[in-house]
Amino acid sequence: MITKMYEVYRYRGLLVNLALKELRLQYKHSFLGFIWSMLNPMLMLVVYVVAFKFILRSDIKDFTLFLLIGELPWNFFQSGVLSSTNSLVNNGSLISKVYFPREVIPISLIISNFLNFIFTLIILLFAILAYHRSLTINVLYFPLILLAQLIFMTSLSLLLSILTVRFRDVYHLMQVALMAWFYVSPVVYPLSHVPLKLRIILYFNPMADYIEAYRRVLFYGQPPEWNLLGLCIAGSVILLIASMGLFQKWSRDLVEYL
Amino acid sequence: MVVEFDRVTKYFLIGHRTNGIKDAIVSVLGKGRKYGEHTRHGVVRDLTFAVAEGETFGIIGPNGAGKSTILKMAAGILYPNKGTVSVKGRVSSLLEVGAGFQPDLTGRENIFLYGTILGLTKSELKRELESIVDFSGIDGKFIDVPVKYYSSGMYMRLAFSVAVHSQPEVLIADEVLSVGDSNFQEKCLRKISELRAGGVTVLYVSHDLSSIQRLCENVLLLKGDGTASVGTAKEQIQAYLHLNSI
Questions:
Q1: What is the pLDDT of residues B21-44, one digit of tens each?
Q2: Considering A226, B31, B87, B232, which has the largest number of Cβ atoms within 10 A of its Cβ?
């Protein structure tokens, strides 16, 4: 597994290039081009604000900012996981003709979505300024939470992409599952609004813990809850190791399933 | 030995590998084929050969005899069902020229993308960029044009050029010279000879027997019935022609 990680590192040029290719092709023939990666989350934000502030009348202070802090990492999670799920199948013609460590394909999609996400943080920064919120020292925990989310996403992308090669149903299942996952993650509501019994179940959802942690750090100016975050990171690392193992095992005869 | 195949057997399971729920239901109802049923199609049986460093090794045989399967195993794309395949050093494979090219990206962007697919880093590619473009013979005004506007010859020339500039230690080439005009084919054959002189090991598959004769010392002849033999280029080509004439 260590040698595999080194091999993936050796192909870092490819990793970056595939990620950039994805970004370049994404908005190639659209008039607004890369502006879409900012416009898209903002338009979705408008939808959420209308639905949850004006119709369902959420009583949270600075609700728009509250939403945005949850929405951006969630979008990153959803698009990163969904696009990498189908990535091996989509790149079948390449995989069956050239050798390179296959891990590169799903990971490159996580990277391209990550770059997109970093870009959208500009919106977040302006929003924080617009709401006259000041950032506290706790904002320094932000990269750590992001890293934890990245580990979780990488392990899911490896696991789901290799599963999809054998069971194409996984992709269709994930489309629905991610929608359900959105509602069990505290994007449009705070975790504290969830009845206690249910809340305990939600703690097992790493995305719920990550979104709560982002909110604590960026919205409330508090440090993250270490117990929860620590457990999540440990869980993500274990999942990553397991996914890498399965991926390595199944990628041997990957080509024959494509 | 740089490339070693030791009692390699490879078969494919034909057809029914991804049995869906429809097949499962159909088989329960007792109609059609059984769920999970598949046939084995043997391609390579008990194959052993070795290629020394700096050697250009040819593989010939009729369609479907397993030439590409052997190359894919050498490249690490397929794994053998039995036996072992070992290849030492940096492999650059030209199994299908231009696999990995993105039609919407420009020639220059594709050089970087394809080069990194072959395992190069960005700085290595920057260094080689000029000689890659130069060798491909593509006009400077086309290099920043999306490759979907290229002719198939230009497409292929650019891909071949990237592959031979990727500093391979083992070059795997499958029918790469079938596209491109005679001028460029000649250039490619010269380049392969040049690489060989520099110590590069080449696995070369072609139906063009004159280029096999010209480039290769030893040749593996696949007879199409699962058997194979290794010998000098001259005798193997004769055996192949004899095989065809029966």
A1: 776 677 677 655 555 566 778 888
A2: B87
